[in-house]
Amino acid sequence: YGHSNQLRQARAMGDYLIVGVHTDEEIAKHKGPPVFTQEERYKMVQAIKWVDEIAPGAPYVTTLETLDKYNCDFCVHGDDITLTVDGKDTYEEVKTAGRYRECKRTQGVSTTDLVGRMLLMTKAHHSNIDEDLDYRKHTDNFGKGPKGHSPWTGVSQFLQTSQKIIQFASGKEPQPGDTIIYVAGAFDLFHVGHVDFLEKVHQLAEKPYIIAGLHFDQEVNRYKGKNYPIMNIHERTLSVLACRYVSEVVIGAPYAVTADLLDHFKVTLVCHGMTEVVPDKDGSDPYEEPKRRGIFQLVDSGSNLTTDLIVQRIIKNRLEFEARNQKKEAKELAVLEAMRRLEEEK
After folding, report:
1. Cis (ω within 30 of 0) for the bond into 229?
2. Does 340 fall in a domain?
3. Residue, of 105 and 303, whose pLDDT is higher
4. Which terminus has fewer CB within 10 Å in the chain: N or C?
5. Four-point Cα dihedral 331, 337, 343, 346, nearest 10
């Protein structure tokens, strides 16, 4: 949702947003191993509702040639620095030409922090659980070089506000003639498996209005175990709202899809993917009511990607990720130092 928020801000600066997505090879060269394949990333970026078009295989260094090729007036990046493998600012050329704009980086989330949560089996990142000191200590070390702490790669707390939700929400009410479809789950680490599922659900109706019910952290932990969900309810809300197929999100939906919920939202259809449905606390089927009404449908996303698989990819690349983050932090700290020296010389 940090990436989505950047795209939202970029889209607000102009009329048409083209997002350049790098190949696996380019990322491996400049940053380290990507978690998702380029095909997965193309699909995920395309599913974000502020994106008009993607430019697959975009070069890591943005040049004027790239901007002209796609007929772009300017490019936008967050206010953190990105450096090439040899430590140069990747946006130097477009900045000099006056075709660069900047947006605010989203506070409280980074890929680094999420990777840390996946590797540490604590639950301290769940909402309303006391902060676990071990977790704090360890996230502070995670990917941190020996010399201090870069503000870009470091970890900070995500604070949800109503304003953020409003910015991400579509604000559209269901219209007469809309098919109101309800889906529920954890939607943790919102990924291409979720996108494939929601896209399939979206294709089930002429005018779909999809409501996604997100379960509270404790509920997800009950049926998923370990330290799931990796992202807490506030973070999952924004991630799902950013998807172009979703019209509305129920924050903390009941695990059992009740008659009340179906009547309240005037639900026509309830869909679930091909994943296992864990019984409710009392052993009952959470989809008993929609099944009784004959409005329940299983939808095959055609994707086998799960949150578990992503965590496995991360663990497999753990050492490479730690090395990547330390290198990234060292480069950022060197730039900060240089910027400080420039200030002093003025």
Report:
1. yes
2. no
3. 303
4. C
5. -100
Rg over alpha carbons for the chain, rounded to the nearest Å, is 21
**Of the residues 258, 281, 298, the one at which a domain ends:** 298
Using CA atoms, how far apart are residues 84 and 63, in angstroms rounded to an integer?
Answer: 13
Q: Cα(first)–Cα(last) distance of the chain, in Å?
A: 38
Looking at per-residue confidence, does 302 or 127 come out higher? 302
- Our count of domains for the chain comes to 2
- Supply the range of the domain harboring residue 26: 1-103
Write out pLDDT tens, residues 292-316: 999 999 999 999 999 999 988 888 8
- How would residue 157 be classed by pLDDT, with cut points 50, 70 and 90? low
89 and 200 together in one domain: no
Contacts 24+ apart (CB under 8 A), 104-107: 104/9, 104/78, 104/79, 105/2, 105/6, 105/78, 105/79, 105/80, 105/152, 106/1, 106/2, 106/5, 106/6, 107/156, 107/158, 107/159
